[in-house]
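Key result, reporting period 2: structure in, sequence out.
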């Protein structure tokens, strides 16, 4: 029997079920001899705040991708680098690694009566991009009790509202949930509400072991 009061694991998607985009951005910044923070901010906006940056508006569902894409390419052009958004996303998608151990833990948790949920900052069109399954192809959605997608809800991490929404849907208190993400400010926001925050690095192994400890599956 699990000796813990933690009842749910809330998962980010990009950087958890896939390789982190932060590594791809760092690689591109090095190649173009530009500050990695400047490049990341140009593409994604600042992670710790909500702004009118086009990526933030895409994640809140306020823009269509066809509208936001050229605006972000303008941000890149303002950096003085010859880099298109197509090149950026090819690098991100091409740096994928096997994250089957994450899926395995989701299914193990589900089998042991632990609730699973997704809390993702995403662009609406990414739900069916590519082969028609979009980001859903990486995630065992049949094992998810709740899917909190920023583009559907109009609110994005690290706004506390998206975490509170998920907790309400799960019908649990913050201390009964683990939140797993590859971005430190998102983990900190969850922890500030009383959730157990776990930061995923380039090797997800240590983070998954920590999740196992917290939920009692070690």
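The corresponding designed sequence is given below.
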């Amino acid at each position: 029997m699990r000796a813990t009061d933690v009842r749910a694991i809330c998962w980010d998607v990009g950087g958890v079920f896939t390789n982190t985009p932060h590594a791809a951005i760092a690689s591109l910044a090095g190649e173009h001899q530009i500050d990695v923070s400047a490049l990341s901010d140009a593409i994604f906006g600042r992670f710790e705040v909500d702004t009118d940056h086009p990526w933030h508006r895409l994640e809140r569902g306020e823009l269509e991708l066809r509208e936001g894409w050229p605006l972000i390419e303008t941000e890149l052009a303002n950096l003085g680098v010859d880099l298109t958004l197509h090149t950026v996303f090819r690098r991100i998608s091409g740096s994928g690694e096997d994250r089957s151990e994450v899926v395995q833990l989701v299914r193990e948790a589900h089998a042991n009566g632990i609730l699973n949920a997704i809390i993702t900052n995403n662009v609406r069109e990414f739900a069916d991009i590519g082969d028609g399954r979009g980001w859903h192809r990486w995630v065992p959605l049949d094992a998810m009790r709740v899917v909190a997608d920023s583009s559907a809800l109009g609110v994005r991490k690290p706004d506390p509202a998206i975490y509170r929404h998920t907790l309400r849907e799960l019908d649990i208190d913050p201390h009964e949930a683990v939140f797993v993400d590859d971005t430190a400010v998102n983990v900190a926001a969850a922890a500030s509400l009383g959730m157990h925050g776990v930061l995923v690095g380039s090797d997800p192994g240590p983070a998954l072991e920590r999740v196992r400890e917290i939920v009692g599956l070690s």
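The beta strands are 8-11, 115-120, 146-149, 177-181, 196-199. The domain at 8-19+97-215 is CATH 3.40.50.1000 (Rossmann fold). This case is discussed further under Risks and Mitigation.
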